[in-house]
Amino acid sequence: MRPGDYLVLLAGVLLCAFATMMLWRGGVPEKAVIRAGGELFGEYPLNAPRQVEVPGPLGISVIEIEPGRARVAVDPGPRQYCVRQGWLTQAGSVAICAPNQISLSLSGRGGQYDSLNY
User: Fold this and answer.
1) Is the pLDDT of residue 100 over 50?
2) How far apart are the first and last CA of the chain?
3) Which among 34, 51, 65, 98 would be 20 to 30 A from 45, CA to CA?
4) The CATH number of domain 29-108, selected from 3.40.640.10, 2.40.40.10, 2.60.320.10, 2.60.120.20
5) Residue 56 and residue 14: Cα distance in Å, rounded?
6) Which positions, given as ranges, span the membrane (predicted)?
């Protein structure tokens, strides 16, 4: 390899790093959308802390909302997958509590696109 080849390689690595930082980040979330049993339960702005209790077939799930983020804090489901998701902070993020038929998603401008919301 010649010295010019190293410069081209370095430029390629820098371009990939820049594209990763700028293009693969989610948008800023504006509200939390909660669904229960396939129906819209409520939409809550992410500007003030609150807790929302959502009834489902297995019991009550508790959604915790703080400025700029939300999470499923308590769920009666057996495996706790939606609780393990932790805090959702980007628009387009989703936590699904399938056994209790409850989902939490964050919506806003510039959300991520994947197979769930495409």
Assistant:
1) yes
2) 43
3) 98
4) 2.60.320.10
5) 49
6) 6-24
State both tokens at 94: 């989703």
Distance, in Å, from the CA atom of 104 to the CA atom of 96, rounded to the nearest integer, reads: 6
Higher pLDDT, 118 or 25: 25
Cα–Cα distances in Å, from 101 out to 15, 39, 79, 82? 43, 10, 14, 11
Between vectors from CA 83 to CA 37 and to CA 85, what angle results, nearest 5°?
105
C-alpha span between 84 and 13 (Å, rounded): 34
The percent of the chain in helix, strand and coil, each rounded to the nearest 5, is 20, 40, 40
What does pTM read for this prediction? Answer: 0.73
How far is the C-alpha of 94 from the C-alpha of 88, rounded, in Å? 7
Are 92 and 51 in contact, with CB atoms under 8 Å apart? no
